[in-house]
Design goal:
By secondary structure, the chain is an alpha+beta fold. It has helices at about 1-10, 20-45, 60-65, 70-80, 85-95, 100-115, 120-130, 135-150, 410-415, 425-430; strands spanning about 155-170, 180, 185-190, 200-210, 220-230, 240-250, 255-270, 270-290, 290-305, 320-330, 335-345, 355-370, 370-385, 400-410, 435-445, 450-465. The protein is elongated.
């Protein structure tokens, strides 16, 4: 029997691993990163007006209580430290001394806005616009008035567009050993299936809406859609398109905010329909002191279609359960720490494609000033498969993966705000955020077919429109 098997093994073409769940995992990770960038950009933009506080203490104010400039710097320091109530009191005291201080009135309105006192903030900012204001302060006042008007709407929606490009050092996730196992025999990869680098153009369009149901508690009807397009320059087999729609409720109770939703996802790979997933998600979140905690449960019915490059992909169809819990802590108004644990149970038509995975992610957001931010994250994933793939090895597969990422973002206007650039061009960049990202991924496996590493560099532009 060995006489017949050996020639068969060594005559098999040895290729890099075919498209698999790693592409779906990558899309899920991209979605998490888009949300992180969006949140950080929003928070960084919100903090822009409070810069220039300096190192001022209350004792400094007591030593010179009539010094309005000192009081103003102290109010900014209070805002920077997160003491919005104290800042409001300081600014209000200054306005009692001189109601015509236009800049102070604008800052007071912004603080009231952040304290969610929308009616009073609107009145203060409208009064400020009647006073002489510099162009920058006037724009800030008008921007916050527009935001207040948005928040008062019963129906709210936004659309966010992201455009960019990324480079992958090992886009096809080829084994870094230069070989694969076939029936436990180690065979060299074909040259065209070794590590390949590639560039891609990337775009995504995301929209969300909410409708206040009119109850005393702010319960809402919610919905969203996302379209993602990844067009590879060289490896067209990994061209990706994905779309997701979801809808549900956001229920606000005194003890927690609970969000039940249903969703449907469709993904194409290599210009062929590859994956469909539909299911339901339940998320609960609440604040406990200075810590925000959340828990999520999700069920997905998964269906994979046959690809030209992977005729066995349909065997991955089945069911998937995700459980996630996490916490976020604002160390200071400029520094936010997050930690998340996720458990995934994926079931398929064959045991060797079924696995249980454990994931842990740790993140840090730093709002560095002037609308800029820095995101860093470190993730670990361990996947244990239920059975061995006899065509590959007698061993059951288990993987360990590390992922480190850093993202820097800034307003596009800041990047081009220097002499010689026409004002019309600067104005056209308002609202656009530019991000640069670098990522290192290393996956270890007891089977060399799945042991690989990758380095990714990405640049993106994104802008949000509210309705």
């Amino acid at each position: 029997m060995i006489v017949f098997v050996a020639p068969l093994v060594f005559s098999l073409p040895v290729q890099a691993q075919a498209p698999s769940d790693r592409e779906i995992e990558r899309l899920e990770e991209e979605e998490r990163q888009r949300k992180a960038r969006t949140r950080a950009a929003g928070k960084a933009t919100e903090r822009r007006p409070v810069e220039g506080a300096g190192d001022i203490t209350f004792q400094d104010v007591l030593d010179d209580p009539d010094n309005l400039e000192l009081n103003f710097r102290y109010a900014k320091a209070q805002i920077d430290s997160g003491n919005l109530t104290g800042a409001a009191a300081t600014l209000e005291r200054m306005l009692l001394i001189d109601p015509e201080l236009a800049e102070i009135r604008v800052y007071y309105g912004l603080v009231l806005f952040r304290l969610d006192s929308l009616g009073e903030a609107e009145r203060i900012l409208e009064e400020a616009l009647k006073l002489p204001l510099g162009g920058g302060l006037r724009q800030e006042a008008e921007r916050y008035l527009a935001e207040i008007a948005q928040r008062k709407k019963r129906f709210r929606a936004f659309v966010q567009l992201s455009l960019g490009s990324h480079y992958d050092w090992n886009r096809n996730a080829a084994s870094n050993m230069g070989a694969n196992l076939v029936l436990d025999s180690r065979l060299d990869l074909e040259e065209e299936d070794r590590r390949q680098y590639d560039w891609a153009t990337v775009g995504s369009l995301r929209g969300e809406f909410s409708y206040d149901l009119g109850f005393q508690a702010p319960h809402k009807l919610i919905g969203s859609f996302t379209y993602y397009h990844d067009d590879q320059v060289g490896i067209e087999d990994l061209d990706t398109k994905a779309g997701t729609i979801s809808g549900g409720l956001k229920l606000v109770f005194p003890w927690a905010t609970v969000t039940p939703t249903a969703f449907h996802t469709l993904t194409s790979l290599s210009h062929e329909r590859y994956y469909r997933g539909r299911g339901a998600r339940l998320r609960a979140e609440r604040r406990i002191g200075d810590i925000e905690v959340h828990a999520t449960g999700q069920y997905t019915h998964t269906k994979y279609d046959v690809l030209f490059e992977s005729t066995s992909s349909k065997l991955r169809s089945g069911h998937r359960w995700d459980w996630e819990t996490g916490a976020a802590y604002n160390l200071t108004p400029a520094h936010r720490l997050t930690a998340t644990y996720r458990h995934i149970a994926s079931r398929a038509k064959v045991n060797y494609l079924e696995y249980n995975a454990h994931e842990a992610d740790f993140g840090h957001t730093w709002l560095t000033g002037s609308g800029q931010f820095l995101l860093t994250s470190l993730g670990y994933r361990r996947a244990l498969y239920r059975d061995n793939d006899s065509a590959v090895s007698a061993k059951r597969r288990n993987d360990n993966r590390l992922r480190a990422r850093v993202t820097y973002g800034m307003p596009l206007r800041t990047a081009i705000d220097f002499k010689g650039v026409p004002e019309d061009l600067k104005d056209a960049t308002d609202g656009w955020i530019w991000t640069l990202s670098a990522e290192v991924l290393q996956q270890y496996s007891n089977i060399i077919n799945y042991q690989y590493q990758n380095r990714r560099f990405q640049t993106m532009l994104m802008k949000r429109w509210d309705f």
